Amino acid sequence: MQIENFGSQREQYIVFQLAKKKFGVSITQTREIISAKELTYVPDSPDFVKGIINLRGAVVPVIDLHLRLDIEADKGQQSKKIIIIELDSLTAGMLVDDVEEIKGLMKEEISILPKIAKKIDSNYIEGVARTEAEEELLLLLDLNNVLTKQQKETLRSVEEESTAQEVQN
Description:
Blueprint: E1 10-18, E2 21-26, E3 30-35, E4 49-55, E5 58-64, H1 65-68, E6 81-87, E7 90-96, E8 98-106, E9 110-111, E10 125-130, E11 137-141, H2 149-168
Parallel strand pairs: 2-11, 5-7
Antiparallel strand pairs: 1-2, 1-8, 3-6, 4-5, 6-7, 9-10, 10-11
């Protein structure tokens, strides 16, 4: 007789690549995934803001996760994807190299990152999971914590200034 464990819940994660490394983010933190578009550069914006896009009439700032997470970009990577997310009522895009799959993970499959491997301000790392290959680890990110409160406010001002300029034109 097989006993099913109803206490464990499977959560869905979007698996994406940055510089040939695999990362995951809970599907509940995302709105949609789009192919990278031509970005409009915004002068005096933070380094990690790659630009803005027009998403169905809304001005959306796009964050380059390579820059934000201090991961060297793969120069040969051509096609990129943008994961659209909601951060404290702010819509933003996260620029990644590629989106691979949606993967279900049980809580038991996720380990906490050892403290020695973490910076003090890296509370955006939710945990670590194994991939099917077993030798490769999947770093799970909490996108709500990828940006500090101050950085979110800066993004809001970039979004508001861009929207105001669009209205004037």
